[in-house]
Specification:
Length: 369
């Protein structure tokens, strides 16, 4: 069960302005409080090398990259505005750790299609071990920005998916070359790479079928089935997006998928068969999933102030409800979960986003299980 929950505020802005009604990005002149203080936490990455938690933000002033010291509880900016252009206002599900300690990331956007040709495109960046500044090294797809990346550390490949046009691509870190797979019509919140090095995603704007790309054969396989309730769940993230809220390699030969409708399922990469496992709670969105304590999966799901932690036992198929995400001292509820990461054995951090009347916070949960 959850023993203690608290939230940490980096910057805060409380407002009744509906940000989704804005068709152009706010500026410091037009909306100074929103520009500088209305933020959200959208991506988390623990780094065993320095023991800190790297945080990707939504921030209109382009200050989108921080790290959090879990001992001192202090945030440190990684100075992204020094290299940013104005449209880089988010590091979405796009932080990955290489075996040499390098952090790789990518920038996402929030501007409308009317401004698409004014923007150069999302950048890939890296933070060297021990560094406190990001370095850009590529814009893989002109004009479009990068919603999510997956790192194949062994083959030195970064896979990415773009917005507002749903392209998929791979970037070769050895050669500096991009392979654009083109428009696929669907997008996952984040994808995964199986034990054979194949990258999995979704395609087709109506059915959101699965696909896999095999880099060794340089071959794409287009399947004609998807996850459960794919059509019904396909626009819960945003218009046109696919039904996959998270996807992880479980370390047991399978990929595990949390859907936008709140379903947990398992993908067998050898056959592409998808098996329904559970619906851990009666709520939508399941964007947080990690391997925990060998046979367990730890998950975080929920929306509209109804967010929960759960554990799924892969040995017997049981679901353990760990509790709602409510601050132990203040009673504040977490509005919408976006990512989940483990620091230590039983402490998890949850990224909060899309809060309608305030900034998003970083949440810390101690679990007794």
């Amino acid at each position: 069960m959850i023993k203690n929950i608290k939230h940490y505020i980096l910057r805060d802005h409380q407002s009744d302005i509906v940000l989704s009604d804005m068709y152009e990005l706010p500026t410091r002149e037009s909306h100074p409080e929103i520009f500088d203080d209305n933020i959200a936490f959208v991506c988390l990455l623990p780094h065993p090398g320095d023991g800190k938690l790297y945080c990707g933000l939504t921030a209109y002033n382009t200050d989108v990259l921080y790290r959090f010291d879990t001992e001192s509880k202090e945030f440190e900016s990684l100075h992204y505005p020094e290299i940013a252009e104005p449209f880089e206002v988010k590091v979405h599900r796009s932080l990955e750790l290489a075996s040499d300690g390098t952090v790789y990331g990518a920038t996402a956007c929030l501007h409308s299609v009317s401004q698409r040709k004014q923007a150069p495109g999302g950048a890939l960046f890296k933070i060297k071990p021990g560094g406190d500044h990001a370095e850009k090294f590529a814009i893989p797809v002109e004009y479009d920005y990068i919603q999510t990346i997956s790192l194949d550390d062994e083959r030195q490949l970064i896979y990415g998916q773009t917005y507002p046009v749903f392209n998929a691509f791979s970037y070769d870190l050895k050669t500096g070359k991009t392979k654009n797979f083109g428009y696929v019509g669907s997008i996952t919140h984040i994808s995964a790479i199986d034990d054979s090095g194949c990258f999995w995603g979704t395609w087709n704007e109506n059915e959101h079928f699965l696909y896999k790309y095999d880099p060794d054969a340089d071959e794409m396989t287009w399947f004609h089935h998807s996850v459960p309730n794919a059509k019904a769940d396909s626009s819960r993230m945003y218009a046109g997006a696919g039904p996959v809220d998270t996807m992880i390699n479980g370390g047991d030969g399978y990929l595990y998928i949390g859907t936008c409708g709140g379903t947990l399922c398992r993908l067998d990469p050898k056959t592409a068969e998808v098996t329904y496992l559970a619906k851990p709670a009666p709520t939508a969105r399941l964007p947080g999933l990690i391997v925990w304590k060998d046979s367990l999966l730890l998950g975080c799901m929920g929306d509209d102030n109804d967010s929960v932690l759960f554990a799924y036992d892969r040995d017997n198929g049981s679901v353990h409800h760990l509790g709602p995400l409510v601050d132990t001292e203040t009673g504040l509820t977490l509005f919408r979960v976006h990512d989940l990461r483990l620091m230590g054995e039983n402490t998890v951090y949850v990224a909060e986003t899309d809060v309608p009347d305030r900034s998003g916070y970083l949440w810390e949960c101690e679990i007794g299980f």
